């Protein structure tokens, strides 16, 4: 990233704006208030349709929100652990060195990008419309199951 904050405004590193009412349903962009750390008005983000039974829309997250901070931290770890990988391979073969950490980065990134669509998903929506996100959890569960099975076999034969 070009800026430690992860936020650029008018080609200058700036303080990121934070959601004032994160998680609250909205009906227009004007309800998606953003503030600076001192509480002053910083504009708004967009109100997007959600995929939930009630038909609520939710505000997109902002670069000052904790979810974006988590993406930055996970991305920095992925980059730091693949320092000896060629840049073109960083997201290919080298990512398997730390597959779990890479998976956590992808989950955090998708959650941030898809937040309005993920709030209060029911089982059907999770399978059809937001499967890109929820399937990441199933992949982790399958990985954990294989690891537990391997560990159990080792215990039985020792």
Question: What can you see in these coordinates?
Answer:
This protein is of the alpha+beta class. The protein has one domain (8-156). Helices cover 43% and strands 13% of the residues. It has four helices and eight strands; from the N terminus they run ββββββββαααα. It has helices at residues 66-81, 99-118, 123-128, 131-156; strands at residues 8-9, 12-13, 18-19, 25-26, 33-35, 41-44, 47-49, 57-59. The strands form three sheets. Strands 3-5-6 form a three-stranded antiparallel β-sheet, with no helix packed on it. The chain is flat and about 60 Å long. It starts with 7 loop residues before the first strand and ends with a helix. Mean pLDDT is 80; it is low at 141-148.
Annotate the secondary structure layout.
Blueprint: E1 8-9, E2 12-13, E3 18-19, E4 25-26, E5 33-35, E6 41-44, E7 47-49, E8 57-59, H1 66-81, H2 99-118, H3 123-128, H4 131-156
Antiparallel strand pairs: 1-2, 3-5, 4-8, 5-6, 7-8
Can you give keywords for this protein?
158 residues, alpha+beta, 3-stranded antiparallel sheet, 4 helices, 8 strands, 43% helix
* Tally of contiguous helical segments: 4
Reading the helices and strands in chain order gives EEEEEEEEHHHH
Q: Into which percent range does the helicity of residues fall?
A: 40-55%
What portion of residues belong to β-strands? 5-15%
Spatial order of strands in the largest sheet: 3-5-6
**What Rg is obtained from the alpha carbons, in whole angstroms?**
19 Å
The description of the largest β-sheet is: 3 strands, antiparallel
Structural class computed from helices and strand pairing: alpha+beta
